[in-house]
Specification:
The termini are far apart. The protein has 567 residues and is mostly helical. A hairpin with an 8-residue loop joins strand 5 and strand 6. 50% of the residues lie in helices and 9% in strands. The chain has 21 helices and twelve strands.
C-alpha cells in the first residue's frame, strides 16, 4: 500500500462552472474509503488504489470533450458511484462495481427515493466516465434498458401564486434599485454582511445585505416572467439594444443569446406594441434595469451581476437560489397547497406557455414564442397548474351533472356556481383574465377601431335601417368618417399601411367618376387631407416598405383598380 505521505501529487481540478466562478474537485478523496470530505480525510481509512486514483484524475484532467460544467457533474456522479462500491465493497474499476451500482439505482427507483429520469442520467454519466477511462462499456453495463423515461411537465403557477410572486419581486427590485442608484459607490463597496439597504413589504420591514445581488436576483425572475426565456439564456444576457422593430409600434428591446445546451442562438424580445399583450410596467422595468447596470458597471455589456466587496461577477445559479431562500424564509411565501412557493424561471416559462396555448389552441405559435419544437411544448410546457386544472374539471363535471338533471345549461351553470360557492366558473374566469378586453376590430382601411358597436356608429345604423328594423347588431362601417373618429387606431404594420395607401389611391382615382373637381373635393378632399396627415405620422421605414409593396404588387384586394367609389 502506498502511504499517504509518499503521494505528493496535486490531484485538484480547476473548473470554471459559470462566469469565472471556479470549483476545485479534489481526487485525494478517492484514496479513502467512502470518498469522505476533505476535512474528514484524517479520520478516514486509506485504501490501496493510489495508482487507480491517479489514472482517474489524469483522465478528467486531459479531457477536451466536455465543458467544465459537465465535468463537474460527472465528478459528482463518479463520487456517488465510488461511495456505493466502497459500501458493498466492490472494485469500482470492474464489471462487478458497475452491476452493483445498477442494482443500487434500480432499488432506489423501486422504493421511490430516486426518479427513473435521475437514475437514467446518473447511469449515462457513468457510461461517459468509463469511456473516458477506455473501459469496455458494452461488456460491463447491462444490455437491457433498466429505466423507462418519464415525462415530467413543468408545473405552471396559478393566478394567485403568480400575483403573489410578481408583487413581491417587483417591490424588492424597485425598492433596492432606487436605493442603490442613489448611492452606487456605497453599495459596490459593501461587504457580505453590511446591511445598508432596507426592504418593506406588507407589515414586514427588513434590512438587506448584498443589496446589489438581491436586486439582480429579483430582476432575473422578472425577466423570466416577461420574456418566458430559459434560465441560462436570461443569466447570459447582455444589455439589450433599444431599437424600433420593423412593422411594430413603440420601443422594442432585442437581445440575441447563445443557448448552450441546445447549441443555438435565441432572440429575447421585450417591447411595446400599444396593445394589452405587453404591459407598460414591463418597459418601465427593463428601462430601469438598463439604467441600473449602466450606473453600477458602465464598462460592461452583461445585464445581470452580483457584487460584494467591489468584486463584480456574473449572476450565478447558486446566488439566485440562496437569495430566494432568504426571501421565502423572511416573508413565508406559500403556494395554494400551503407548500413553499419558490420562484423558478422554468415555471414562469410554463405559465406563459400554458396560458397562451389554452387561449389560442395554437401549438405552433406557442413553440415559436418559446423557441422550442411543438413536441417539446406539448411534453413540458402545456399542462398548466394542477390546482386550477382540478377546479375546472370539477366545475365541468358538476355542470354536466346538473344539465342532465334540469335540461338547461344556463340553469346548470347557476347551480354549479352555488354548489362550489363561486362568483364565476374557473374557465370563464381564465378567459376573462387573459382575453383582450373591448370589441376592437380591424377595418377595410388598414386601421383599427376600438369599439365599432358604440354610440358613435348610431348615425350609420340609422341610415342602414329599413322600415324601422332594429340594426343595433351592426358594426359601424362609416369609413369616410373613420379619420375623424376617436375610436380609430393606427396599425403600423406594412400590410395595413399598404391597405391604407390603396384606399388613398382609390379615392384619388375617383376624380374621373365625378361631375367636376368641385364635386370631387366636396366628397373626398377632407378625407384625403386627413389620410395624408396620418401617413406622414407613420414610421418612415414602414411607410416606404408599404409604398414599395403597392408599386410592386398593386393595390390591396379591398380596393382594386376597377372600383367605382361614387356609385
Amino acid at each position: 500500500m502506498i502511504n499517504k505521505s509518499k503521494l505528493n501529487l496535486d490531484l485538484k481540478l480547476k473548473l470554471n462552472i459559470y462566469g469565472n466562478q471556479f470549483v476545485y474537485p479534489d481526487f485525494q478523496r478517492f484514496r479513502f474509503k467512502g470518498v469522505p470530505k476533505i476535512v474528514e480525510l484524517q479520520k478516514s481509512t486509506l485504501l490501496n488504489r493510489d495508482e487507480l486514483v491517479i489514472e482517474w484524475y489524469r483522465a478528467f484532467k486531459s479531457n477536451t470533450k466536455y465543458t467544465d460544467t459537465s465535468l463537474h457533474s460527472l465528478y459528482r456522479t463518479f463520487t456517488k458511484y465510488v461511495k456505493v462500491c466502497d459500501s458493498i465493497p466492490a472494485n469500482p474499476d470492474s464489471k462487478e462495481g458497475i452491476n452493483a451500482f445498477e442494482a443500487y439505482l434500480v432499488h432506489n427507483v423501486r422504493i421511490g427515493s430516486t426518479s427513473s429520469n435521475s437514475a437514467n442520467r446518473e447511469l449515462s454519466g457513468l457510461r461517459a466516465i468509463m469511456r473516458m477511462l477506455d473501459r469496455p462499456v458494452e461488456q460491463w453495463f447491462s444490455k437491457f434498458k433498466l429505466f423507462r423515461s418519464q415525462i415530467n411537465p413543468t408545473q405552471a403557477y396559478s393566478e394567485i401564486e403568480l400575483k403573489k410572486l410578481i408583487k413581491i419581486l417587483q417591490s424588492l427590485y424597485f425598492q433596492l434599485s432606487k436605493q442603490i442608484q442613489a448611492s452606487p459607490k456605497k453599495y459596490i463597496k459593501a461587504g457580505r454582511h453590511e446591511q445598508y439597504a432596507s426592504f418593506s413589504f406588507g407589515d414586514i420591514k427588513v434590512y438587506v445585505s448584498s443589496a446589489i445581488t438581491k436586486c439582480y436576483c429579483a430582476a432575473y425572475f422578472l425577466l423570466a416572467y416577461y420574456t418566458w426565456a430559459n434560465a441560462s439564456t436570461i443569466r447570459d444576457m447582455d444589455i439589450p439594444k433599444a431599437s424600433p422593430k420593423k412593422g411594430q409600434q413603440g420601443k422594442w428591446f432585442v437581445q440575441t443569446v447563445l443557448k448552450k445546451r441546445a447549441n443555438k442562438f435565441v432572440t429575447i424580445e421585450l417591447g411595446d406594441n400599444l396593445s394589452a399583450d405587453i404591459p407598460k410596467h414591463a418597459l418601465n422595468f427593463i428601462n430601469d434595469l438598463i439604467t441600473l447596470t449602466h450606473t453600477l458597471f458602465p464598462n460592461t455589456n452583461r445585464l445581470l451581476h452580483q457584487c460584494i466587496d467591489e468584486v463584480n461577477k456574473p449572476l450565478c445559479p447558486t446566488h439566485i437560489r440562496s437569495n430566494m431562500n432568504w426571501l421565502i424564509k423572511t416573508f413565508g411565501l406559500t403556494d395554494d397547497n400551503g407548500q413553499e412557493l419558490r420562484p423558478e424561471a422554468r415555471r414562469f416559462r410554463a405559465t406563459g406557455s400554458a396560458n397562451y396555448l389554452a387561449l389560442t389552441g395554437n401549438s405552433l405559435e406557442t413553440s415559436i414564442l418559446l423557441n422550442n419544437t411543438p413536441d417539446v411544448v406539448r411534453k413540458h410546457y402545456s399542462k398548466g397548474n394542477e390546482s386550477e386544472n382540478n377546479a375546472q374539471l370539477q366545475a365541468t363535471a358538476n355542470t354536466l351533472e346538473n344539465a342532465i338533471k334540469c335540461g338547461d345549461i344556463d340553469k346548470a351553470r347557476e347551480q354549479t356556481l352555488e354548489q362550489m360557492n363561486l362568483e364565476v366558473l374557473p374557465y370563464d374566469e381564465f378567459v376573462n383574465r387573459y382575453a383582450k378586453s373591448g370589441n376592437g376590430q380591424k377595418t377595410p382601411l388598414g386601421t383599427g377601431c376600438k369599439d365599432p358597436f358604440n354610440s358613435r356608429g348610431d348615425r350609420f345604423r340609422r341610415k342602414a335601417s329599413i322600415d324601422s328594423v332594429d340594426m343595433s347588431h351592426l358594426a359601424c362601417a362609416d369609413l369616410l368618417n373613420c379619420f375623424s373618429c376617436p375610436n380609430q387606431v393606427l396599425v403600423e404594420e406594412v400590410d395595413d399601411i399598404w391597405c391604407l395607401l390603396s384606399f388613398y389611391e382609390a379615392l384619388e382615382d375617383a376624380k374621373e367618376d365625378h361631375l367636376n373637381m368641385s364635386h370631387f373635393k366636396n366628397n373626398f378632399e377632407r378625407v384625403l387631407t386627413r389620410i395624408k396627415h396620418v401617413l406622414f405620422s407613420i414610421d418612415l421605414k414602414v411607410r416606404r416598405q408599404a409604398e414599395r409593396k403597392l408599386h410592386k404588387v398593386g393595390r390591396h384586394p379591398f380596393w382594386p383598380d376597377t372600383l367605382n367609389l361614387v356609385l
